[in-house]
Design a protein that fits this description.
The complex is a heterodimer. By secondary structure, chain A is mainly β. Helix content of chain A is 0%, strand content 52%. In chain A, a hairpin with a 6-residue loop joins strand 4 and strand 5. The radius of gyration of chain A is 13 Å and the shape is globular. The termini of chain A are far apart. Chain B contains no helices and eleven strands. In chain B, strands 2, 4, 5, 6, 9, 10 and 11 form a seven-stranded mixed sheet that branches. Chain B has a four-stranded antiparallel sheet with strand order 1-3-8-7, with no helix packed on it. The chains are: A mainly beta, B mainly beta. The interface between A and B is medium-sized, with 21 and 26 residues.
């Protein structure tokens, strides 16, 4: 079964509103990554979090890694139409050379 | 510096036909990956290659074969295509810390 759960699946927001997507795992993660996929495009790496409680910012995007390293969040402040797309978290769940992706959160922004 | 390239971009097959999806990277990465993405779904790993000469199964390997031709190239073969293999296929290279994706191949099996 899916070992990295992501919620919500979809989110409609009005331009200017905030948006948050959450990623949860039942196991402790060594790191977590976030990717963005524009409609019709391919996933693009955004950031990696490694340390417990880590917070990183990229302009209007804030990424957090939970203290127990079992969950993460991506928060976008004051969404813009350019933020439209699907946001995926990904983590190495088991030892090895594989990433497991969450199901993604599709963000739609009404202008 | 093209990154990860994939060919073809689009393909339509009939059930039972075979084809090979090509992927190449110019970033000198050891590891390469093949994923499939079904409508509205996340990415599922089909096969990966941790280094030249090695390949390993991912989450959904049935119906596929792969070849790591050299460090740059990693191909995915469908021997007898089925409608359930209709999907978008992404190749990626990198590590478990960062992966770089190609533009994808949109495959329809009728």
């Amino acid at each position: 079964g899916q070992q990295v759960m992501q919620i919500p699946q979809y989110q409609h927001v009005q331009e200017g509103e905030d948006f948050t997507t959450y990623c949860n795992s039942s196991t402790t993660l060594s790191n977590i990554q976030w990717y963005k996929q524009r409609p019709g495009g391919h996933p693009v790496f955004l950031i990696q979090l490694v340390k417990s409680g880590e917070v990183k910012k990229q302009k209007r995007l804030t990424f957090q890694f939970g203290e127990a390293k079992k969950n993460s969040s991506l928060h976008i402040t004051a969404t813009q139409t350019t933020d439209v797309g699907t946001y995926f978290c990904a983590a190495r769940v088991n030892a090895g050379n594989m990433l497991t992706f969450g199901g993604g959160t599709r963000l739609m922004v009404k202008p | 510096n093209a990154g990860v390239t994939q060919t073809p971009k689009f393909q339509v097959l009939k059930t039972g036909q075979s084809m090979t999806l090509q992927c190449a990277q110019d970033m000198n990465h050891n590891s390469m990956y093949w994923y499939r993405q079904d409508p509205g779904m996340g990415l599922r790993l089909i096969y990966y290659s941790a280094s030249e000469g090695t390949t390993d199964k991912g989450e959904v390997p049935n119906g596929y074969n792969v070849s790591r031709l050299n460090k740059r190239e990693f191909s995915l073969r469908l021997e007898s295509a089925a409608p359930s293999q209709t999907s978008v296929y992404f190749c990626a290279s990198g590590t478990t810390d960062t992966q770089y994706f190609g533009p994808g191949t949109r495959l329809t099996v009728l």
